[in-house]
Amino acid sequence: MATTSLDLAKVRNIGIMAHIDAGKTTTTERILYYTGVSYKIGEVHDGAATMDWMAQEQERGITITSAATTCHWPLDNVDHTINIIDTPGHVDFTVEVERSLRVLDGAVTVFDGVAGVEPQSETVWRQADRYGVPRICFVNKLDRTGAEFHRCVDMIVNRLNAQPLVMQLPIGAEADFQGVVDLVQMKALVWSAETKLGEAYDVVDIPDTHTEAAAEWRGKLLEAVAENDDEMMELYLEGQEPSQEQLMAAIRRVTLASTGAEGTTTVTPVFCGTAFKNKGVQPLLDAVVRYLPSPLDVEAVEGHAVNNSEEVITRKPADEEPLSALAFKIMSDPHLGKLTFVRVYSGRLESGTQVLNSVKGRKERIGKIYRMHANKREEIESVGAGDIIAVMGLKQTTTGETLCDPAKPVILESMEFPAPVIEVA
Ligand code: GDP
């Protein structure tokens, strides 16, 4: 059985947020398919078998049935673990939404390329602001009649008061949407007309029709990044072109630093495509790994002492720290029964050990621990800081409660309910 000690720098805990119908489900499904193609646990990669599985999944209409689903994505041949935390479909400030936002480190916001920024897009945006969640945007449905990438970008400015970093330009529109100009690589990524699930794209030179726009938008991108990053500003003032690595590193810094918290502007890289037609999802996955935070990029979690809510205790995201973990969702699995989904903030959580539920003041025995994948679950012996898993056998613990080392108790910050936001249509 695996005792996973993940390299935290290669972990992304993300949510996918959207107005209803924008394509959150389709985008999530495609992410699971593409990551399933590239990685299968304990099995030799077999394209045919994977496609079979995908066909089956599609038939059954199974997408994310789990509060957290783990998948893997190789970026530059390095494997990364992506935990997708299901953010509930409803958009009011319920404790459930709060908890899912609490345990993720970054988010992908999906927009409908026709409708652009919709009322619920605004609501989820404000929720992410409130929790200081760095995010990237995906303008979806560019194959649809009436879709307009730049209108959506303008709405991100005007309705969300954000500063979009346009990372891609669409090539072709509506039924003729072919791919994107990548403004970092300065290459075109194109898909075949009837792209099949899992099909790779071609990286080609930017077509003549798009060279002028590409130069213009590349200029805007460099300027916007420089405006928000000292290192890039120096290069910019010296009239130097950054290398691809320098530019990507700067975009990462800018994205991580910009969380929209306390009324600040969110700087957000914007990507585009059509999840349904299988165009644009792989570059989006690259972007998740490239630009969204790892658990190490996030501030140490804060909690307070059990008998003194004034005494602040911080725990760093490291296996060597005392255990602190938050139960954020309880689900009933048809095969396993009651599962408690837990984010481990510090220390290690081990199957068979006793931990303290510091809110209730009761000991709990950790039963089996599972990592939930789209097509299977994987039993693991223990799990380290920064990770998200499901635990079987917790009897007393309800959502929002802290599990910790009995010798070093802590209660992770309790959630406050903000005033409800009145939606402006
Ligand atoms: P959700 O409510 O945000 O989860 O949206 P869904 O993923 O369920 O998508 C809503 C509808 O839009 C479904 O009928 C999808 O098939 C369709 N859809 C999603 N993405 C695209 C896309 O890229 N292009 C087109 N044409 N339709 C899409």
Automatic annotation (TrEMBL):
One GO MF term: GTPase activity
According to its UniProt record, where is this protein mainly located? cytoplasm
Q: Where in the cell is it found?
A: Cytoplasm
The question of whether Signal is a record keyword is answered with: no
Annotated coiled-coil positions are none
- Report the superkingdom from the record: Bacteria
Residues that bind GTP:
18-25, 86-90, 140-143
Taking every annotated instance into account, which residue ranges of this chain make up the domain Tr-type G? Answer: 9-296
Q: Which GO terms describe its biological process?
A: ribosome disassembly
Any Gene Ontology CC annotation: cytoplasm
Tell me the keywords, alphabetical order.
Answer: Cytoplasm, Elongation factor, GTP-binding, Nucleotide-binding, Protein biosynthesis
Is this entry keyworded GTP-binding?
yes
Q: What does this protein do?
A: Catalyzes the GTP-dependent ribosomal translocation step during translation elongation. During this step, the ribosome changes from the pre-translocational (PRE) to the post-translocational (POST) state as the newly formed A-site-bound peptidyl-tRNA and P-site-bound deacylated tRNA move to the P and E sites, respectively. Catalyzes the coordinated movement of the two tRNA molecules, the mRNA and conformational changes in the ribosome.
> What protein family is recorded?
Belongs to the TRAFAC class translation factor GTPase superfamily. Classic translation factor GTPase family. EF-G/EF-2 subfamily.
This chain's protein is named: Elongation factor G
Q: What does the record give as the organism's lineage?
A: Bacteria, Bacillati, Actinomycetota, Actinomycetes, Kitasatosporales
